[in-house]
């Protein structure tokens, strides 16, 4: 009986209604997560973890921010964990060196002829074409090593300072720039190969 | 001509590295000059630079709303939340 009253008391005083979360925020949170990690299953898991963590911390939510902001903050932490976990499995910056070597003559640093960047031949002000390019780019992003993708995504989507990314992912500044360079070389080459 | 300048005039690996560093962070005045000299004479790296900027634009341009959950998954999610609430 005591429990019953407690429960009623708690629910009345909550600033949030978890039963409406999925309807209101699931798509938004999923889009937020997916655009940053490009992995459907993992993004779904993160959304679920976010809701469950939110339930746990419901008492601490005082309505100072909107529910959406509050849940997004939880999700951001989960994404950071995800990046860290993935990059610790994937710290072979060395193997990346081989891939970049393919692009340039080892001695002169000149582009090797087969790797010359060539014009894509697209109209950048054609939204339909840009959308198609986005689809090809997505496939190319999926082929990047996890660590590279994390670095690339943290830099460009979240616009984080390079120093912060290095701390989060335990990278040296030198490695950070090597990864940024290699990631872009590979993405560009992949687009050139698969576009048209 | 300084060595650094000489080295980059023909070095596309270094030039593309500086291009990336300039786009996503900053480079020194000396590096800016080196890159400028390189790009003035290297049309291939000029194409690279244009495409690199384009890639960033397309990447950032993905709208979160382009990605949606399927209804079946949402239903399961809702059930899990309900179950979790009833547990307490």
TrEMBL record, chain A:
Example of a GO biological process term: DNA-templated transcription initiation
Annotated ranges, domain RNA polymerase sigma-70 region: 22-87
One GO MF term: DNA binding
Alphabetically ordered keywords of this record: DNA-binding, Sigma factor, Transcription, Transcription regulation
InterPro entries, A to Z: RNA_pol_sigma-70-like, RNA_pol_sigma-70_dom, RNA_pol_sigma70_r2, RNA_pol_sigma_r2, RNA_pol_sigma_r3/r4-like
Pfam families membership: Sigma70_r2
Family: Belongs to the sigma-70 factor family. ECF subfamily.
The protein's name: RNA polymerase subunit sigma-24
Organism: Pedobacter ginsenosidimutans
Automatic annotation (TrEMBL), chain B:
Protein name: Putative zinc-finger domain-containing protein
Entry superkingdom: Bacteria
A Pfam match: zf-HC2
Upper taxonomic lineage: Bacteria, Pseudomonadati, Bacteroidota, Sphingobacteriia, Sphingobacteriales
Domain named Putative zinc-finger: residues: 12-45
């Amino acid at each position: 009986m005591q429990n019953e009253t407690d429960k009623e008391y708690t629910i009345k005083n909550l600033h949030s209604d978890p039963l409406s979360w999925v309807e209101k925020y699931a798509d938004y949170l999923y889009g937020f997560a997916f655009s940053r990690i490009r992995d459907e299953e993992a993004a779904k898991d993160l959304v679920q973890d976010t809701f469950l963590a939110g339930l746990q911390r419901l008492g601490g939510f005082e309505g100072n921010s909107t529910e959406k902001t509050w849940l997004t903050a939880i999700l951001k932490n989960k994404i950071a964990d995800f990046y860290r976990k993935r990059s610790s499995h994937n710290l072979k910056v060395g193997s990346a060196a081989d891939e970049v070597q393919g692009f340039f003559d080892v001695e002169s640093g000149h582009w090797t002829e087969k790797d010359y960047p060539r014009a894509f031949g697209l109209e950048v002000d054609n939204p339909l074409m840009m959308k198609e390019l986005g689809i090809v780019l997505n496939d190319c992003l999926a082929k990047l090593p996890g660590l590279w993708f994390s670095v690339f995504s943290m830099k460009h989507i979240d616009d984080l300072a390079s120093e912060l990314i290095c701390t989060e992912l335990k990278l040296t500044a030198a490695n950070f720039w090597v990864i940024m360079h290699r990631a872009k070389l590979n993405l560009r080459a992949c687009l050139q190969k698969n576009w048209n | 001509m300084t060595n650094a300048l000489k080295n980059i005039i023909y070095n596309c690996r270094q030039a593309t590295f500086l291009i990336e560093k300039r786009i996503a962070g900053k480079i020194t005045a000396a590096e800016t000059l080196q890159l400028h000299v390189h790009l003035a004479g290297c049309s291939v790296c000029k194409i690279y630079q244009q495409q690199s900027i384009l890639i960033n634009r397309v990447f950032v341009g993905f709208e979160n709303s382009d990605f949606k959950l399927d209804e079946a998954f949402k239903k399961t999610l809702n059930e899990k939340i309900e179950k979790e609430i009833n547990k307490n």
